[in-house]
Amino acid sequence: MIRLNLSSRALFYKNIASFQLQSYLLSCNISTFRQSISRLRVSAHRLMIECGRWAKPNPFDRRICNICQTLKDEFHFVLICSLYNEIRRKYIPMYFRCRPSMDKFVELITTEHELLLRQLSVYIHKAFLITTENT
User: Is 69 left (phi over 0), alpha (psi -120 to 50) or beta?
Assistant: First the structure.
């Protein structure tokens, strides 16, 4: 348990972990979108927070976004980074975009509302494609 608390990899996951069938697995009926939200939730992605740990690991505080010059973690990716503003406006409701916080982010990523889960999964999929193009 101590290793989990100290791990930079577990920072996001321990905020959303629930060891039961997750709603998004049932709501997202298109496999590419379901895979995208799953990848984000389990940190199986290429955001700097994760890929900065590979090969020559960067210290946690150096895993920054090339666009915003702040930590590029899952929260930043979904609610903050200006690179994704256009698609964020299309798929993420104003409530989450206006004055984003970690509480709102956890609420969004753990929602059981089917339409919101579908919109979030599409956003994540499209944002991952943009991330790939810009790296």
Answer: left
Q: How far is 63 from 48, CA to CA, in rounded Å?
A: 5
Cβ–Cβ under 8 Å, residues 108 and 117: no
The span from the CA of 74 to the CA of 80, in Å, is 10
Tally of domains within the chain = 1
Dist CA 127 CA 14 (whole Å): 23
Q: pTM of the predicted model, to two decimals? A: 0.74
Residue 55 lies in domain: 2-133
Cα–Cα distance measured from residue 94 to residue 126, given in angstroms and rounded to the nearest whole number: 18
SS3 88: helix
Counted residue by residue, the chain has a size of 135
pLDDT tens digits, 98-114: 999 999 998 998 888 98
